[in-house]
Specification:
The complex is a heterodimer of chains A (318) and B (320). Chain A has one domain: Alpha-Beta Barrel (TIM Barrel). Chain A has nine helices and 16 strands. Chain A has 318 residues and is of the alpha/beta class. In chain A, 58% of the residues are buried. Chain B is α/β, with parallel strands linked by helices and 320 residues long. Chain B folds into three domains: 96 residues, Elongation Factor Tu (Ef-tu), domain 3 (Beta Barrel), CATH 2.40.30; 122 residues, 3-Layer(aba) Sandwich (Rossmann fold), CATH 3.40.50; 64 residues, no CATH class. Chain B is globular, with a radius of gyration of 19 Å. Helices cover 19% and strands 28% of the residues of chain B. Chain B starts with 35 loop residues before the first strand and ends in a 10-residue tail after the last strand. Classes of the chains: A alpha/beta (318), B alpha/beta (320). Chains A and B meet through strand 5, strand 6 and helix 7 of A and strand 14 of B. Chain B: Keywords: 2Fe-2S, Electron transport, FAD, Flavoprotein, Iron, Iron-sulfur, Metal-binding, Transport. Chain B: Belongs to the PyrK family. Chain B: Its cofactor is [2Fe-2S] cluster; FAD.
Chain lengths: 318, 320
């Protein structure tokens, strides 16, 4: 077995020691799991999405387990900008980990106000803009599923920070590649593919949804093949880094996303099951690469045989 | 029906047990940063009657000890038919040289608990815990423990903790019928040891008083000296009725709630319970202390704000 491979990657201005990040909403504000997993050992911690005003979230039930996955309908519950700055940011800085703050807004203007407030704060290495929450009535995945809107919004946000700007996309769109290109043209440093898939589960006893709202967002192993295909599509459409996300439970899953061209990956639902999951993904990924004699993660990235790829999609940039 | 089981109304005069004032017990730990995920070994798994199972797990020596009312998340190793761990309240903690043993009483009603029911002795389970806030057993007063069906589990543990504090309790146990008074023998054995008194009620009158635990409470309460404190666990409609009783009679009342959960640690925000109007008002005030990790005047999280809540904290109209 050779020495530990170099896992470092770059996302715009951000250098990460490894390509494993925690998905927004699955790792709190970084300190909740800190006694079992040192966040410094991860590529970065992405926080729970923060919005301008506090949000109470959706009524119960918010969770329904389905075959190989879980539906959630949290509804962006969070403390809002003011308390985030006052109470969470100092804790995040104390972690000495790389922190990416997730921002959510119902309009481009709201996102701009958030970034005006946080864009220059020390201790935040990047911002992931949540363009894809499936569980809110306004400012969710449907509102943001327009390439021009994404492009204009990111162009407006770009001058507000020198930190990395990442756009998180919904898989529930006709052409995710077009949205990714909009983000790239607007000035995003990277895109995340993908957020949860809209899903449903019905309680046939009561004849109603098993969630408080009709639908929720599906995550977990059930979505991995779907997410991988979306990630593949996005990688081929843009030249900025892509963060793969969706059902990653272990190092093998992570290497699949990187093989199709993702620069980094996000671990989400796995952390609910095993709080150390993200750290385990890092360890396992390093071991698997070492076993294959691969010294740098960059050498693995995009290693998928071209023959295995379908013909270029019609909208693909030349 | 034995003499002990019978609820004893005024006939012949009710002599309350001698109950010492609460000792200065430490409040239950918040456990936010104390939980661990550790592999446990099944040491005992047997039928507990009426479709219930009794499970005992040997924990590693360093596993933090749960308090009564706290819970753990049980996760089956792959390949498992379910993805998420299952929250389960602790019914027993026994210290042993090799490490603590935790006991659980549950009913295999869903895919997850049915998979648990297939565990054999020496099988492995991942245990995440201890989680949540347990019963505040340090609150002074005559402890009145009220269990509905398998809600008896955390109260067995509570009775044991009270015994260690040298306090006797009144134990009210109700179910739909005699068969659903699960772990009754175990309950009686513990109460005998500590000199606590067991009062039974069944909906069909097949054991104890014909009626609900609430009717039992109405009969017994006038005979108990003040102050009294209620700790209860059972179906939510029963807990709502007990919460209202406690509020009406100004008796401190604590209820162990249930919810579907994902993480169990407060991170996923998946197990909201509606807060009462007064709590909503209090927490909405500017500069109110954050009630939890994230703070939310509308909803409490069952896993970290609870699972044990004071009666005044929740909106029982939306829960009962």
């Amino acid at each position: 077995m050779s020495r530990t491979p170099d896992l470092a990657v770059r996302i715009g201005p951000l250098r990460l020691k490894n390509p494993v990040l925690t998905a927004s909403g699955t790792f709190g504000y970084g300190d909740e799991y800190a006694h079992v997993l040192d966040p410094k050992g991860l590529g970065a911690v992405i926080t729970k999405t923060v919005t301008l005003k506090p949000r109470a979230g959706n009524p119960p039930a918010r969770i329904a387990e389905t075959a190989g996955g879980m539906l959630n309908s949290i509804g962006l519950e969070n403390v809002g900008l003011e308390r985030f700055r006052r109470e969470k940011l100092p804790k995040l800085r104390a972690l000495s980990a790389t922190v990416v703050a997730s921002l959510g807004g119902e309009t481009p203007r709201e996102l701009a106000r958030l970034l005006e407030a946080l864009g220059g704060e020390p201790g935040i290495g990047g911002f992931e803009i949540n363009f894809s929450c499936p569980n809110v009535a306004r400012g969710g995945a449907i509102y943001w599923a327009h390439a021009r809107r994404l492009e204009r919004t990111l162009a407006m946000l770009r001058p507000l920070t020198r930190a990395a700007l990442i756009a998180k996309l919904s898989p529930d769109v006709t052409a995710i590649a077009e949205l990714a290109r909009g983000c790239e043209q607007g000035g995003a440093d990277a895109v995340t593919a993908v957020n949860t898939f809209v899903g449903m589960a019905v309680d046939i006893g009561g004849g109603r949804s098993r969630l408080g709202r009709a639908t929720g967002g599906l995550s977990g192993p059930a979505i991995k093949p779907l997410a991988l295909a979306r990630c593949h599509e996005v990688v081929r459409a843009v030249s900025i880094p892509v963060l793969g996300s969706g059902g990653i439970m272990n190092g093998r899953d992570a290497l699949e996303f990187i093989a199709v061209g993702a620069t980094a990956v996000q671990v989400g639902t796995a952390s609910f099951i095993r709080p150390r999951a993200a750290a385990q993904v890092v360890e396992e990924m390093a071991r698997l690469l070492a076993e294959r004699g691969i010294r740098r993660i960059e050498a693995w990235r995009g290693c998928l045989e071209p023959a295995a790829s379908p013909a270029p999609a019609a909208g693909r940039r030349a | 029906m034995s003499r002990r089981e019978r609820a004893r109304p005024a006939r012949g005069g009710y002599r309350p047990a001698r109950i010492p004032v609460a000792t200065a017990a430490a409040p239950p730990a918040l456990a936010k940063t104390a939980w661990r995920q550790a592999e446990a070994r099944v040491t005992l798994h047997r039928d507990a009657g009426a479709g219930h199972r009794w499970l005992e797990l040997a924990m590693p020596r360093a596993f933090p000890l749960p308090g009564a009312g706290q819970f753990v998340q049980l996760l089956l190793e792959a390949p498992a038919p379910v993805l998420l761990p299952r929250p389960m309240s602790v019914a027993l903690v026994r210290r042993a040289a090799a490490g603590p043993v935790l006991g659980f009483l549950y009913a295999p009603v869903g895919d997850g608990t049915r998979a648990l029911a297939a565990l054999d002795v020496d099988d492995r389970v991942l245990v995440l815990g201890p989680l949540g806030r347990g019963f505040p057993l340090e609150v002074e007063g005559v402890p009145v423990l009220i269990a509905g069906g398998r809600g008896v589990a955390p109260l067995l543990f509570a009775a044991e903790t009270l015994e260690r504090q040298g306090r006797r309790c009144e134990f009210l146990f109700g179910a739909r019928d005699a068969a659903h008074l699960v772990a009754l023998a175990e309950t009686r054995r513990r109460l005998d040891r500590m000199g606590g008194r067991l009062h039974l009620a069944t909906d069909d009158g097949s054991r104890g008083v014909h009626g609900t635990v609430l009717e039992l409470l109405d009969r017994i309460a006038p005979h108990l000296p003040a102050p009294r404190v209620i700790h209860a666990c059972g179906p939510h409609p029963m807990l709502a009725a007990i919460a209202r009783w406690g509020l009406r009679h100004s008796v401190p009342t604590f209820l162990a709630m249930e919810s579907i959960m994902a993480c169990g640690t407060g991170v996923c925000r998946g197990c909201p319970l509606p807060r009462s109007e007064s709590e909503r008002r209090r927490l909405s005030r500017a500069r109110a202390p954050l009630p939890s990790l994230y703070g939310n005047p509308e909803f409490a999280m069952c896993c970290t704000d609870g699972p044990v809540f004071a009666a005044h904290a929740l909106d029982w109209e939306r829960l009962g």
